Amino acid sequence: MTGKKAGPAYQKIECYLRELIQTGAGRSEPLPAEPDVAARFGVSRMTARHAYQRLVNAGVIVRKRGVGSFVSGHYLERLPISGTPDFSGWTEGGAVHFVVESYGIVKAPANIVRLMKLKTGEKVTRLQRTRSVNGVMSLDTRYMPASVHGLIPPADIEHKSLLVLLKNAGFDIASGEVELDAHSATPQDARKLGVLPGHPILQRRLVYRDAQGREVLVGTSRYPGGQAYTFGFQFDARTIT
Amino acid sequence: MTGKKAGPAYQKIECYLRELIQTGAGRSEPLPAEPDVAARFGVSRMTARHAYQRLVNAGVIVRKRGVGSFVSGHYLERLPISGTPDFSGWTEGGAVHFVVESYGIVKAPANIVRLMKLKTGEKVTRLQRTRSVNGVMSLDTRYMPASVHGLIPPADIEHKSLLVLLKNAGFDIASGEVELDAHSATPQDARKLGVLPGHPILQRRLVYRDAQGREVLVGTSRYPGGQAYTFGFQFDARTIT
Q1: B18-57: pLDDT as tens digits
Q2: Could you say which residues of chain A have pLDDT below 50?
Q3: Taking 50 as the threshold, does the pLDDT of residue B1 lie above it?
Q4: CA distance B25 to B69
Q5: What's the pLDDT score for residue A2?
Q6: Which of B230, B235, B238 lies closest to A180 in CB terms?
Q7: What is the mean pLDDT of chain B?
Q8: What domains lie within chain A, and their CATH numbers?
Q9: Of the candidates B76, B90, B182, which has its C-beta nearest A182's C-beta?
Q10: CA atoms within 13 A on the CB side of A215
């Protein structure tokens, strides 16, 4: 879209930044830095700065000295934990049913290019499925390296945990980030999760990396809120006795 | 309330269990076991079983062999992490404003008696406050041991992180559980958080324990959903190099 628009360069940059923000950028990580954006659009740093300043003046972004630009009116509360998650048996409690809606290789969308540090146009493995545990549905979208598609056959996806399959395929998860926020059900959520539009939805985003720091599993799960679904984690700094 | 009701014993037990469920019991942990409830009401185990079976038949609870009875149609997805959370600087990013609404010693409500493993009628320190970070509000309710009230003066509560104050008072957090779910704003949420009733709300519950396993900080935070607030955690099993 950006390339099609006429008008001053700062407007193109402003539009580009607004598009990035709409895909979720500028919350966990800063928006792209001014010099990078100036280089991308082939303009002076002054022109790029003008675009950022217009978004600051409009109350869309805030600039944090030494860190970068973020969406305003958003608060990310992030708790760092040094430790090992125990994925064994995770999501295995109760009767789990997977329905795979699609599993294939696609061109990575812009937000995945950013999260997985890919080049524009690079391919990834995408999985879309519904999951039902104890009668509670979730909508899962997962992105993995393109090579995963050849290593994990579609039949396995329906019956086994993705974390177990990835581990067996040589992708062991060593670090990661999980983010959670609350939203209202879109018409699509409502249809697929069996709730009314506007019903509260818990959205979980994950970025899991292997020991080399490569993103091997990135995605989103949407769950019905209210009394249906709770996400929890336990931590323990004590030596188990 | 339970004591006032006439009718067969199984009805009193059924009513008692429904009341427990309404306060959030039966999700993370099982409902009280049949023999305990039979003893509490001074009835036979058969009578207690009848009450549980009626709730199973009504689709309110499910019984998990060897684990206990849980609310049905609810899914708790819990990720265990062996490690140390780094609370230093947590919730300190951005401009934090606390407004203390109440801070005092109260009789522990039923769900806190359960979570903090107290005796009925035992006293606890309760804090109710609003917190604002980067323009995003939260409603916090916190329960701590009664002795905390004498150790942490009210003036400090307005200006410092509760985790830092507890640590300085000798309550070092060693393990804990965090649970998150999505709800709709009640009229009270709406008024205090500045959103419309029905707006999505992220609720976070926490149970933090010291090295001896005593619950030292238990409570709930409610945040506006949508684009306003994200809760995240990062884990890292690798040795930092």
Answers
A1: 888 877 788 877 899 999 999 999 999 999 999 999 999 8
A2: 1-3, 240-241
A3: no
A4: 10
A5: 45
A6: B230
A7: 87
A8: 2-71 (1.10.10.10), 96-224 (3.40.1410.10)
A9: B182
A10: 18
How, if at all, do strands B229-236 and B215-224 pair? Answer: unpaired
pLDDT classification of B102: cutoffs 50, 70, 90:
very high
Query: Residue B156: CB partners within 8 Å, gap ≥ 6?
Result: B165
Who among A84, A180, A234 is closest to B237 (CB)?
Answer: A84
Predicted pLDDT at B209: 94
**DSSP-based three-state secondary structure for B120:** coil
Å between B121 CA and nearest CA of chain A: 28
pLDDT value at residue A3: 45
Helix (H, G, I), strand (E, B) or coil at A152: coil
Distance of CA A140 to the CA centre of its chain: 11
Q: What is the pLDDT of residue B70?
A: 87
8 Å CB contact between B206 and B218: yes
- Whether A183 and B200 have beta carbons less than 8 Å apart is answered as yes
Residue B2 has pLDDT above 50, yes or no: no
With CB atoms and an 8 Å threshold, state whether B176 touches A134.
no
| Residue A62 C-alpha, separation from nearest chain B C-alpha, in angstroms | 10
- Chain B residues closer than 8 Å to A66 by CB: none
Q: How far is CA B226 from CA A70, A97, A225, B41, B136, in A?
A: 16, 29, 13, 45, 11
- Give the whole-angstrom CA distance, residue B38 versus residue B58: 20
Residue B81 and residue A233: Cβ atoms within 8 Å?
A: yes
Contact A230 B202 (CB under 8 A): no
> Cα distance from B240 to chain A (closest Cα, Å)?
9
Q: Is the pLDDT of residue B197 over 80?
A: yes
> What is the predicted pLDDT for the residue at A70?
87
Mutate to test the interface with A, among B29, B61, B79, B130 (most CBs of A within 10 A): B79
CA distance B30 to chain A (A): 14
- Round to whole Å and give the CA distance between A112 and A127: 13
Instruction: Give the Cα separation of A30 and A69 in Å (integer).
Output: 5
Instruction: Give B77's contacts in chain A (Cβ within 8 Å).
Output: 90-91, 133, 229-232
- Encoded amino acid at B195, one letter: V
